[in-house]
Amino acid sequence: MEEYLKQLNESQREAVVYTDGPSLVVAGAGSGKTRVLTYKIAYLLRQGLPPQSILALTFTNKAAREMKERIASLTDERTARRLWMGTFHSIFSRILRSEAERIGYPSNFTIYDATDSKSLLRSILKEMQLDDKVYRPGMVQSRISNAKNALITYKAYEQNKELVQHDIDSKVPLLREIYKRYQNRCQQAGAMDFDDLLLQTNILFRDHPDVLEKYRSFFQFVLVDEYQDTNFAQHLIVQRLCEVHRRICVVGDDAQSIYSFRGANIDNILQFKNQYPGCRIFKLERNYRSTQNIVNAANSLIHKNTKQIQKTVYSEKEEGSKVAICSSYSDYEEGYAVAGKINDMRMRNYDYADFAILYRTNAQSRILEEALRKRGIPYKIYGGLSFYQRKEVKDVISYLRLIVNPHDEEAFKRVLNYPARGIGDTTLNKLIVAATDHNVSLWTVLNDPLGYALPVNNGTAKKLSDFRELISGFIERNVKLSAEEIAAAVVKESGIVSVLFQDRSVEGISKQENLQELLKGIAEFCEIRREEGAERVSLADFLSEVSLLTDQDNDKEEQANKVTMMTVHAAKGLEFRNVFVVGLEEDLFPSAMSKDNPRAVEEERRLFYVAITRAEENCVLTYAKSRYRNGQSAMCSPSRFLRDIDTKYIYASADVATDGSFAGTRRSSAFSFPFRQPKAMEEDAYVSPVAQAVGRQARLTRMEAASSSPSSVSTSDLSGLYVGAKVRHDRFGEGEVTAIEGEGGNAKATVSFAHFGQKQLLLKFARLTIIE
DNA sequence: CGCTCGCTGATTTTT
DNA sequence: TCAGCGAGCG
C-alpha cells in the first residue's frame, strides 16, 4: 500500500480508494472529511488522472484554498494549481465568462453583490411606485433569490399559477413583474447576481448540449464538499456533469446543514443514494477532534432532530471536562464573564488563539468586543462588513467596474456623482427614465443625450459630457494599461484622492488607509500574476477574481495570538481548543424567526450542533437573563436547546451563579481594570484591514510593507543562479532551485520552498536573492 | 444641487 | 444602537 494511504483510518481509506462509481461520504463532525477529500484527489492524480480533469467544488474560498495547499504538499504546487478547485460560484463564473456569448451576456459581465441587487430592486420599486413597506426590498430579494435557486426564471414564474396565486394571497401580486424588470435590468447592464451564476450555468447546459458535452468529458471526476449545503441549482449542475460517467464523490454531514435560508436543500444529501443507484456510502464516524463529553453532548442534542442519516459519532479521546453552562444577569455581564474565564484559563497554558467565541448574530459581537478590550485580551473578528463593502473601497471598485463594463448600472449610479460633480438625483432619475423608456443602459443614454431626448439644461449637459469623457478616457487607456496602472490613474484623475485626503478626521484617515490598501492589493495581485507568467494583468482579470472574494480570507501571519470571534455559520469547518457559545436564549438561538417552524428549529439545532462540535477540549455555553435589543433591554429565557443536551454531560457552573453575587464580583473586578488600555494593546486588538487585502486568495502570504511598483523592482542579478542554489524570496522565504529553463526575459526557475512547496517563478519579476 | 438634521426601522445566518 | 432615508433649507 502506498505510504500516504497509511495515514488514513480504515473507513477513510475505503472512501478514498473507491473510484469506480458514485459515492457518498457521510462525514461526522471532526471525522477527517477534508483529509478524505484531499487524499482522494491525490489518489486520483496518482492513478494518472490529469489535474485539470478533476473538478472539486467547495462551499467557501477558504476551504478551496486550504485544500489546494494540502494537495500541493502531497503532490506539488503546479499540479495543485491546475486542478479545478473552488466554490461553485467562482468555478462557474469562469465557465460562464468563456461561454458568455452563448447565453447573451458579455464575457466581461459584472457580478452584482447583494448590495447591488438590493439597490437595483429599490430603484425598480421606486419606478413602479410601490410602497417599500409592503414590498420590502429584503423580502423581494429573497423571493427572487429563492426562485432562481429553484431554477425558476421570471418567465416560468409568471406562468406558475401556484406562485402567482401565492403572491396574490400574500398581498404582493406584482412580484412577478418586479422579478421580470429586475432580470431585464441585470441583462441590460451585463450583470449577473450571485444566483445567476448558478442559474445561467444551468441554462447554458440545458440549451447548449455541445457545451455540456464539452465539460462533461473535460471533468472526468467531480468531487463536492459540504454537499448538505447545496441548493437545487448546484445539485442540478453537478448532476448534469456527472450523469453519464457517474464518477462523482460527494462529502457532507446532514447534521451540519445550516444554509437552508439560502436555498440549501438537505434532501440533496438525503436523497443522493436514490439519485445515483448503485452508489456506495461510506460513513466516517470517529471524531478525532473533541473529547468524549463534547461529542456525546452534541450527539444527545442532535438526536432530538427527526430527519437524519443514521450514524454514531464517537470519540476515543479522553472523557474530558463536561460542557459548562453559565448564566449571567445581562449581556454585558455575559461578555465580562467570558473575558474573565479566558483570562483564568490562559493561566493554564492556553494561548489566546486557543479560544473562540461563537454567536448567532453579528450584532452580538460589539458587547463581547468591549468586554475583551477592557480585559486587554487581543481578538479578531470575522464577518461583519467586508473590506470590499466599505464605501470608499466600493466607490473605487465601481469606477473600475464601469471601465470594464460601462453598462453596469449600479456602478454607474455610485460613481456618477462621486466625487461630487454637480450631477444630483434629479439628473440621475432623468437618465434612468430615458434608459428604461428606450430599454437601453444608462451609459448608452449618456453617450447620446440628444438622441434619447434627455431633458437637461446646458450646464448639466456639460457636466454629463465631462463625466462621459472621463470614463471614456479610462476605457481607452485600459486597453493598454495594467490593472494597477489604471486604478492609480482612476483615483488620481477622478478626484477621489483630493476629496478623501482633505478629510483629516479619524474616519477620513481610515478611509485613506483603506484606499491605499486597495491599491496595494491590486498591485500585489498584478505582481503575483506576472510571476506566474501572465503578460498583462488586466483590470477585467482583477475584477473577475475580486467580485467573489469575501472577508473570510484572512492571513495566517495576521492571526497571531488572538481570540477568534465569529458567527456560528462562519465557524463551520473550524476547530478550537476552547469554545464559548454565547447568547443561548429563546428568540436569539433559536432565532425568533424560526420558532414557529419546526423545520427551521431543526436547522437551528443543527447550527447549535455545529457550534458545540467546534470544541476540542472545553465547551462553555452561556446565556443572559436580559439583553439589549433594539436599544432596549429585554428579559430573556434560556434556550430550549440547553434542555436538549443530556444532563450527564453538563456541568452547570457555580462561578457565574444566578444570584446577585456575580454582579458584585463584576463591580469589584471592573474597578481593577481601568477603562482604557495601553495604546499598543488597543491597536493590536483590531484586525487590520490589511488582513483583508486583495489578491489574498491567489497567494499565501503578504508582501512586506514596502509597497512595490513592478517597474521599480530592481532586477537583481540572477545570472549566477544554478540548480541547487539556495535562494530567498520576499514572501515564500527560503528555498532551493530545482530547475531553470528559458532564457533572457523569459527565464524561469523552479524553486522548492521550505513552507510553500514548489513554485515556478519568472526571474524577470521574482525578487530572488541567492543566499548560498 | 448639496448638506444637515431628525426620524424610523431593522436585525439571521453568506456565496 | 445605528445606519439609511427623506424633508427642508442654503
From TrEMBL:
PROSITE patterns the UniProt entry points to: UVRD_HELICASE_ATP_BIND, UVRD_HELICASE_CTER
What's a Pfam family in this record?
PcrA_UvrD_tudor
Similarity annotation: Belongs to the helicase family. UvrD subfamily.
Origin species, per record, is: Parabacteroides johnsonii
Q: Which residues form the UvrD-like helicase ATP-binding domain?
A: 6-291
All copies of the UvrD-like helicase C-terminal domain together span 292-573
Residues annotated as binding ATP: 27-34
Lineage of producing organism: Bacteria, Pseudomonadati, Bacteroidota, Bacteroidia, Bacteroidales
Keyword set includes ATP-binding: yes
One GO BP on record is:
recombinational repair
**Name of the molecule in the record:** DNA 3'-5' helicase
